[in-house]
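Saturday, quiet lab. Running sequence design on the structure tokens for the scaffold JK sent over.
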């Protein structure tokens, strides 16, 4: 009798799994979409169709991850900006939504509809606010009598490079980036989006659940453009009548077929939100470019034989002076030390830069200011949780923040719509949440969202 009951339970469980696996096929919008099994922490999804279809697929296939990410971001935003989530919902509706073109309105609405189909309570304004979370602080500080919009916190830390010509092993482009943010949000930055839209180019990009853009902005498109960025430190300024950065970043990833296309799309309607120094490569021409996109000052440099690097170090002196509070003369900062380290690595490795070299660069622990190996916020593989007060410009010592994931690709990989990626620190050092919270109880407010962040191996992803 006990055996029969157990067998019946197993059969019912199997039936339930069968129904779950078949159930997505009941909605025709999901026919071309798929979600692959986890690979070294990454979840790859294929989204295809019209904007509304892509959005619905996104919301439906990633509903558990979107709800989890929303919990983290809402907690972090409330703590950092000292505002309730309703403030960000209202801003999303009244400030951002009027300047979002119909294509991306349809996709955002589709995400909300896909979430609803999975029983989630998040609505459209939650989804829009989640997409805008990186630029909402810029608007928030703009409201606050023009105070500096971005402190030297984790949002101002990423490391990136792009090289071509005599600097690379094969003379073609190589590009790499590691994303710096809080470990709580970074551990959730684990989606590999393979998107085949009805219009524009196919894209392969990393991202967070629920975002229509990459967020840390690393991706390749079928038109031959490869994109990444690092944030401009201590940036001031915001235009509430401009187009949201997350819309322009996604549009550029989808529609740019050249460096000129990319620059035009990013500049058109620039609202100053999430101001970045963009590194762009065209695998067709092996040209690389640096677009430093301020609100008042915009510069575009390009070359077919050289490199550009990003370390949140403002490049243009006029932009630095007029739109930031950053001090380029202070050599103790993370930005200055990492900028110097990039310049050294590029020259030391001239003619030998390839994917393997890029992966080593992102794991680098050399502090150019102190002249020694010491993992901290001043190294390319950033470990802010190991940086005490007084080092550089970081204002919260031992914050569980720093490099959270890494990507590198080259022209040959981009031709195949392929890139390599690794979650956690590229150096191989993992992070233990419980141990850190026990040692630094001032971060107890993160206890419900902070997770362990193991270092995973490099993994290749290709659009399917």
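Result came back. Writing it out in full:
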């Amino acid at each position: 009798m006990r055996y029969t009951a157990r067998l019946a339970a197993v059969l019912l469980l199997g039936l339930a799994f069968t129904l779950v696996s078949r159930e997505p096929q009941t909605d025709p919008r999901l026919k071309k979409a798929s979600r692959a099994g986890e690979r070294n922490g990454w979840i790859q999804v294929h989204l295809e169709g019209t904007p509304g279809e892509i959005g619905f697929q996104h919301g439906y296939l990633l509903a558990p991850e979107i709800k989890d990410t929303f919990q983290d971001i809402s907690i972090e935003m409330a703590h950092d900006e000292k505002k309730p989530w309703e403030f960000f919902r209202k801003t999303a509706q009244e400030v951002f939504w009027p300047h979002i073109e119909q294509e991306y309105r349809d996709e955002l609405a589709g995400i909300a509809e896909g979430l609803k189909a999975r029983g989630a309570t998040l609505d459209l304004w939650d989804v829009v606010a989640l997409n805008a979370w990186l630029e909402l602080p810029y608007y928030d500080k703009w409201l606050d009598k023009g105070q500096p919009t971005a402190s030297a916190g984790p949002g101002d830390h990423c490391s990136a490079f792009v090289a071509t010509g005599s600097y690379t092993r094969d003379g073609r482009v190589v590009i790499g980036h590691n994303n710096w943010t809080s470990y709580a949000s970074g551990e959730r930055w684990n989606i590999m989006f393979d998107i085949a839209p009805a219009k524009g180019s196919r894209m392969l990009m990393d991202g967070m659940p629920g975002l229509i853009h990459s967020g840390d902005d690393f991706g390749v498109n079928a038109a031959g453009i490869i994109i990444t960025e690092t944030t401009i430190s201590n940036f001031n300024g915001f235009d509430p009548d401009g187009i949201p950065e997350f819309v322009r970043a996604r549009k550029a990833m989808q529609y740019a077929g050249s460096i000129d296309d990319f620059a035009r799309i990013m500049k058109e309607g620039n609202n100053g939100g999430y101001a970045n120094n963009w590194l762009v490569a065209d695998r067709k021409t092996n040209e690389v470019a640096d677009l430093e996109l301020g609100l008042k000052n915009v510069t575009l440099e390009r070359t077919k034989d050289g490199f550009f690097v990003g370390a949140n170090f403002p490049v243009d002196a006029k932009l630095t002076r007029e739109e930031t509070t950053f001090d380029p003369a202070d050599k103790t900062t993370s930005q200055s030390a990492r900028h110097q380290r990039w310049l050294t690595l590029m020259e030391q490795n001239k003619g030998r830069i390839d994917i393997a070299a890029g992966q080593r660069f992102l794991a680098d622990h050399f502090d150019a200011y102190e002249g020694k190996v010491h993992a901290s916020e001043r190294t390319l593989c950033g470990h802010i949780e190991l940086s005490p007060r007084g080092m550089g410009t970081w204002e919260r010592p031992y914050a569980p923040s720093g490099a959270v994931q890494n990507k590198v690709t080259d022209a040959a990989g981009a031709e195949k719509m392929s890139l390599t990626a690794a979650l956690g620190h590229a150096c191989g050092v993992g992070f233990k949440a419980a141990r850190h919270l026990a040692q630094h109880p001032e971060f107890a407010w993160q206890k419900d969202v902070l997770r362990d962040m193991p270092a995973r191996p490099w993994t290749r992803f290709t659009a399917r």
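Notes for JK: The longest strand covers residues 401-410. The radius of gyration is 22 Å. Ask whether to fix the surface positions before the next round.
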